[in-house]
Specification:
The structure holds 2 protein chains of 2 kinds. By secondary structure, chain A is an alpha+beta fold. Chain A is built from 14 helices and 21 strands. The chains are: A alpha+beta, B alpha+beta.
Amino acid sequence: MPRVYRNHVSVVVSNLLTAVIILVLATSGMLGDPEVPIAQVIVLYSIVFLIAVPLTIVWWWRTTYTFTETEINIRVDTVFKRDKHISYSRLASVNVRRSVVDVVFGTSTLMFNVNSSVNSTEPEGSLRLRRAEADALREELSMRIFRTEMKVEEDLEVESLIDVSNLDVILHGIIGKPTYMLLFSSLMLIYAVAMLFLDNSGGFLTALMLFVLSELVPMARIILRYYNYRVYRNGDTITVESGLISQYRSSFNVNRVNSVRIRQPLIARLIGRSTLEAEVVGMANGESSPILCPLKRSSEVLDLARVLMPEYVFDQDGTRQPRSALIPMAVTQGLLSLAVVSTVIVLSMYCVPDDASSLVHPTLVSAGVLIPVLLLLHIPLAQRSRSIAFGGDTFMFVYGSYDLKTEFMLYDKIQTVRISAGPVQRVTGTSKCTVGMMSSSGVTSVTSGLFDRVVLDAVSDRVVGRIRDGSYDYRRYV
Amino acid sequence: MVDEFQVDERGFTSDGYRRLDPVCMRSMYLSNLLYLTLVLIASVSAVVFSPELFGDAESTGRLVVSLVALVVIVYLLAGPIVFYRRYRYRMDQDKLEIRRGIVTITHDMVPLERIHQVKVIRGPINRHYGLADVEVTTAGGTVTIQMLREDVAESIASSLNDIVVGILRERV
């Protein structure tokens, strides 16, 4: 018997609240301008708001969610009609979010994510219900998706597989991002301070704004998102819970995971820490890859990966990048360094006006020295780390140089394989391999280091070999 | 030493790859001619207006523009020949493979089991020469067999569609 749900009425409140915030922000932006008739603008915005109220109520009332034996039917019966059918077999996960509005009204928002690379960063549908009702519906849908019974009350009692303190989460927020982003935000901070000393208020504000947007905002977002972190596995279902203000609970079946990645940004690596991430199709909760463990000691992260994802992680020393790979890397980085130095020389000689700030020449010279040094340092770092290894169901690429990534990928989830070799690589008999697969945010590709062609051919041979000999069974991943 | 690009009288290499029809070079030269015109207009303009563009570095600017234009022109002229000489494709019961490249040589492999969609695309220049591309879409990206003769493209697309439909039927 189909059951019909409608969003909790608090959806109307939160939508109207969002509209009010946007209108207030738009109005406040005009306050300083004496030419704008602010009273008329407020009247106009008030009329817009009053029109929005009945429209939002009609939209809320006429949006229904029908749960049948086989699918969810989301129907919007307003002037703009929409009729969306989501088959349970396409559902990858049903996640729960509890925002401030949810906490105030005692509701939870269910987010339905499908197993697709299209629109993967947004849920296919979301439904806000009273908390108990939402929990019951989530349990029922999880039964249909994961074919195992999941009780929300039981979930709360399950112990996390790793103890992640809030201090770990804060550290993750500060140094967990890729090094190039950290470098950019540090440079912006240095530039802002320099502009402050030079009494250049325009330059100071721009640099400060870029620092806030590139460092402080993402840091705050990560801390708010991953505070009170728990991760556990129940049968084939992995659940991640976290949140400081809004609370998130994401569950996914292990067969939806395409790859597992241990990521070590440079500074984290220097203090022996790593983070564990997974590419899960249909996670669609606003993050690029679900984090299975914020920055912790590398040994603890590896132990967690072995317990949480034993299907993916294997213990095997990989084949290291051969010494012959040094030549193409040296040529590439050498040419890039030469291009940087030439650009700096040309800029210094011809493009810097005579009345330019005294900081311009020292900045250019610093860039002309520092960037080539970083480019050349990439060679030994990459050579020392990169490797490739083959397990039973998965294979591993270790790639990167300053930031290191160890990625375990299922042969059965690989969609395309590309092996490529540039002119210098061909001379030295090396190539690189790029594999394409679905990811949490759509489509992703992972590229190996430089290896002998025969070693890399094993990737496509094993992917096709498993299809040919019947080891690949699509039903495992449905 | 075996030449991996050498083909027999049936048009197959020793490891079963096929090559493109030579008419594809004409299509590439025609499209390159359009790029060449743009490059020449841009370079001549840069040289003519070099005092305004480069100021004190007029001679250096002219030299850089001329060198870049020369490299691009050589690439546009020699590219089609190298592209044709190196382009190979092969399809068997399990996979589709394409080898190609002018500077960097790539070898793409797509398991047929992963294919979601097959498209035949005919651009205006290719259509003029009776050529078409076959674009194969998977959940992890697309791969294209370029500049096939139209009948060959239709035949490959039809075979791929049959295989994909067959796989889907088996699963129902």
